[in-house]
Structures are given as structure tokens and as C-alpha cells.
Amino acid sequence: MGSISKSYSVIIIGAGISGISAAKTLNDGGINDIVILEATSRIGGRMNKIDFGGQVVELGANWLHAGEGPICTPLLEAANKIQLNTIISDYSHVASRVHQQEGGLYKKNEVQAAMNTALTVQEFGAKLSETNQEIDQEDMSILDMQRLYKWTPTTPLEKLVDYYYYDYEDGDSPEATSVKHTLPRREFDDFGDGQYFIADLRGFESIVHHFAKQFLTYTNEVISDDRVELNQVVVEVLYTNNGVSVKTEGGCIYEAKACILSVSLGVLQSNLIEFKPKLPKWKRRAICEFSVTSFTKIFLKFPYAFWPTGPGTQFFLYAHEKRGYYPIWKHYENEMPGSNILLVMTSGEESRRIEQQSDEVTKNEAMDVLKKMYGNTIPEAKDIIVSKWKSNKFYMGAFSNWPPNYTRQKHAQLQAPIGRVYFTGEHTSPDHFGCVEGAYYAGCNTGKEVIKYLQQGL
């Protein structure tokens, strides 16, 4: 029998941006009798910096959306306030930076033609989505929409361009992605189409700390507030009409009037946390039928830069007959001159495959691709690090994606509380799922819901 640590007004499980924004909202609303239980040794969740090759890189979330959109998010305001170093991601020259499978660049006009076709199809999909919303028409996958337009990518170049516009953005294939709920791109419409790449020694997670410092105690830049307990792996949530009891792997028991689950969707879909009583069937279905993506970032450190640098070279692409095979590349010379670091990103089946193999095999595969692009005389990578969100038991996925025929009503069920247990996270955001902004707003909204619930005296 575990010992009861203390009784609280609210227990928050998970200290990512959603958990912290929920906790801050509670605190701002006068509810500071809370405890935040975090399974890992740090706060920030999938906003996670790591030292690599003498620099700091982001294993998880890396971009802020900003630009001419109507909404300026508190995240962007925070980034500006703490003077977070960001670099606008420049994709404007990418059409002239596409490598063929066996070497050599595609002609720019050939790539641009393929991109123009893909964008025309995407615009068709966006209009179809808006029409379907208006008449409450059934959903379809992006792949089905492409077939309806009578366009399906078949060549390596077409597959790459298709990947660039969908998989790279959604973390999943067009076959697994809803037209109705991903087109048009709400994050671009709302926040602007500028994508600011975080490249700061303090990491993207410093934004989480910025919000945390507004209500938690820090000593020498380290959280020293006893309302945050790290390395506390929650294994059981017991809920009744009278309250919630949470049990950790170490046997500690916490009790509260309400509980906010800010764990990832992948964790909810797993058996890591047992609910007593079992969640209702409708809730379990809503959780299990939403999609969790696999998105992998591979960082390679070299003795020197052998790739083109300067204006218009930030990103370069690789077309392969196997969809998503080491497709999107980026160098760090703009953000970190002299770092000699390359980043390659992939998702879906390729991401899952790469996570299951050794880093040495991954390095060899990446080097083979680089040799196709830049010749056999390039130096070997000195070091490699591979993000493995899908196989990390505390996340079990990179971010969520909206699958075809998953309705708004079902998503409302995904969001819905069960008694005194509330659910938050980027996956609960109906319009901005899969991104940091959605995670932040979800936490704020859940915090407000819990305040209202507690103020009713229930």
C-alpha cells in the first residue's frame, strides 16, 4: 500500500507546454494548491533540446508559426521577450535543390512544374474541404481527394513533392490524413505562414520555463518548487464522484478534487496508465481512433561542410522511388556557422523502420544518400543522434494527425472530461492539433474548464 503524499485541489500529469499552461492558468485563477507530476527528469515534453556536436539541437518541436496571420500567439510574444534566437525557414529556392536518386539535380523548371501541379491539387482539396464543411458531407483521405482530381504521384520526383506538401507537414501519408480537417492549413491561416526555426542554446523548452517562472519557484535557473515532482511515473488514475487518486510507479499516492491528464495521445493509447474504473467505451474509441505520427529527426556531425551554403541553400531534398527515404535535408550554417551539422527528417513507415534499427545502420544509409548527392569523396559523419519519439514509452509518438472520417463529434469526445478527470494536449485541439501552439492553447482552455468546475463547488 503506497503512502498518501498530500491532498490537492488539482493534480496535473505531464509537464510539457500543455501541462504548464494548464497549471499557470489555474494559478492565475487563484488555484495554486496543485501538483505537477512529470515522468521524466525535466519539464518541456517534446520541446527537448540536446547537446550535439558542440551545439544545441532540438530533438522534438522546432518551429514557431508566425507572420501575417490574425493571431499573435503568447508563444511568439514569449520568444520575443526572452530574445530566443530564431531563423526564418526559407523554402523559396527548394525547387533548385532537389537531387535525383542516383545523383545530379533535377532541372528547376521540372521540379517547379511538379510543385505547381501538387499545389493545384491541394487547392482543389481545400475548396472541397470547405464545401464539405458547409453541407456536412462525409470526409475522405487526401489520397482519395487526389484520385478524385485524377492525379496520383508515381515518379520519384512526384512522390517527393507529394511528401513535401503532406507527410512533412502532417507526419503521416495522404492515405492516413483527413481532407476535411487538415485543408486548408489552419495554423498558417491563423498564425501566419512564416516558420521560425528555433536555434538557441537555451532550447525551445526555454519558452516553457518562461511561463513556468511566472508561477513556480526557481533557484539558479532550476525549478525548486515542491509543486513540481520529476521522475514520477503515473501508473494508475482512480476516479470517483468524490475525487481522484493517482498512483505512481514508486507507490506514491496523490489525491485531489480534479486531475488534468496532459500526457501524449500515444501514452493514452498504451497501457502505461490504468484507469479505475475503466474509461467508457466511447472515450476509449475516441482516443484509439485518433492518429499518432512517427516523425524522426536525424542529426549528423561532420569534420567540415561539403554542401553548398549561403542564400537559398538552407534546405535540399532527395527523391527516391521509396517514398520518404531520407527526403528532407537541412544544414545549420545559417543558424550555427561552422557547426558542420546536417539534419534529415522523415516520417511514417520510414520513421518507424529507422527507429527500430541501430544508429550505425542509419548513419550508413544516410551516408549512402549523401554520396549519391555529393559524391564518394565526402567525409564520413563523426557522430549521429536519432530522435525516437515513437519508441519512447513516455511519448509513444511525435504528434497527432487527423485521420479520415474521424468526426468533430468524436474529437469532442476525445476532449471531454470523465467525471473529475480532464484531458489536454495538442491532440485535444480541434484546429491546431499537432503543433506547439495547439498544445499551449489546449492547456489554457483545460485550466479554465477546471477552474469553472471547482468554482461550482462540485
TrEMBL record:
Boundaries of every Amine oxidase domain copy: 17-450
Signal peptide: none
Coiled-coil ranges (or none): none
Keyword Lyase annotated: no
Residues annotated as binding FAD: S18, E38, A39, V234
A GO molecular-function descriptor: polyamine oxidase activity
The UniProt record lists the keyword Oxidoreductase: yes
PANTHER family: AMINE OXIDASE (PTHR10742:SF313), FLAVIN MONOAMINE OXIDASE (PTHR10742)
Keywords: Oxidoreductase
Cofactor: FAD
Descriptive protein name: Amine oxidase domain-containing protein
Pathway(s) served: Amine and polyamine degradation; spermine degradation
Similarity section: Belongs to the flavin monoamine oxidase family.
Phylogenetic lineage: Eukaryota, Viridiplantae, Streptophyta, Embryophyta, Tracheophyta
Superkingdom: Eukaryota
A GO biological process held by the record: polyamine catabolic process
